[in-house]
Amino acid sequence: MYATVAEAARVAGVQPKTLGRWMKDPEFEADWKAARGARLRQAIGRLQKASGTAVTALLRILVDTGAPASARATAAEIILRHAKAAQKIENVQRRIAALKTATEATKKTATPPAGERTLRPMPGHGEKYSRKKDAAIAALLKSRSVDEAAREADIGTQTLYRWIRYPEFDVAWREASRAAYGEASLRLQQAAGTAVTALLNLLIEPATPASVRARAADLTLSYGENAIEEDIEAQISELGYAAEAAQAALRGDRRSFSQIARDQLKAAA
Description:
Blueprint: H1 5-12, H2 16-23, H3 26-49, H4 51-63, H5 69-109, H6 126-142, H7 146-153, H8 157-164, H9 167-204, H10 210-238, H11 243-250, H12 257-268
Helix pairs in contact: 1-2, 4-5, 4-9, 5-9, 5-10, 6-7, 6-9, 7-8, 9-10, 10-11, 11-12
């Protein structure tokens, strides 16, 4: 990105007035905003791709008896926190998958809204797109910028920006990003047992500073309480009440579950 319109125009080889006129065009503005969004999304994708490296770094700290006790406690807490988050994400993804399956027939017969612009590969570009799509997505997940990803995939930068706006490319890119992070999510959940062992060791090791031992105890109790709260939510859900009713009760709400549910319906109306 460039600091001024004049600088961007110079790099693009056009007059500043011309670029200023283009920027007022709705289609140009849409492409510009998409390009800006693609840069941020590509950067986040790199983090998702590197998530496995982050898990490895945490595990090394966790099992390093020479590391400060505070660092080991922090690593254990981070692993458990993200493992819980990963589990929640997986649960939501399963619900989304079930919803997609249930609505697949409807989507196939649905008519796109009038006037909606659907981007597809341009005539003559279909073969190149099919051949380079997977390489482009892989490059986006590991390169430092969209420009670098285009060079890595041996395609033009503007071509890659256009591909990014294709719905099918967008879906494939999202799936690749989820897969990259999904591997780390699995490792986090597998590492939860190691993290718990580390916390318990910190609780009983005589050399553990009192402040770290207190933090380890707090984490132990907090995750235990969270598990009980989730179990309560599950029990209430089995009885036919929404999770919000359980959450309200856990916050100290003394109304009956039925009353909580009725009041929530009234509030939503």
